[in-house]
């Protein structure tokens, strides 16, 4: 019977395994205090990723501004931008609304891929919007998000949806959502327009695959929605270029984490 050294291929594999075992033993003997700080942070991040834990970014733990102050801040910033454009002779891109919109194809669950986040929205993950039919032919909307990983607190708000241009000639992509607070004593109506839409098809049973929704000429709210939790990078870059051409401040549009919750 031949020895292991007489088989070059087997001997080579054993030599590599032996060297690998020696390196593993050497790593086990390294003390934690001798590891550089950068390597410590990297190891901690890898450990969190392996265990499925997610930590919110520091900015999301900041004390949020009241919604009214947040809206005033956005309005002031837009006013200053308009003044600068006027002085420099610049023009804001035209806001184009999709036509031939069919509300039936818009129903169902949408995942928020990216958006312009208000202070009270920072830190939310797994954000979704569900449009469904209610009693009497009404359309309901339910927006929800999680503050932490799946076991965290869910924040949700429900409202009634209306399609004001559904029966017009152009059938523009316009919708208004009415939210009720304090058991219906206070109602807030938010008008939105759809400026980009994908999917559909020749049959009404085909749903739209992605949508970009904003609050009109104010351009202080923008949502990139998809039927899946992610959009291809190429498609996302195309949407960002289109939003920039329409006059949006794309630096304010940030991606929405879709990995907090694993049980919903």
TrEMBL record:
Domain Lipocalin/cytosolic fatty-acid binding intervals: 105-258
InterPro entries (UniProt xref): Calycin, Lipocalin_bac, Lipocalin_Blc-like_dom, Lipocln_cytosolic_FA-bd_dom
Pfam families attached to this UniProt entry: Lipocalin_2
Gene3D superfamilies: 2.40.128.20
GO BP: any one term: response to stress
PANTHER family for this protein: APOLIPOPROTEIN D
Name of the molecule in the record: Lipocalin/cytosolic fatty-acid binding domain-containing protein
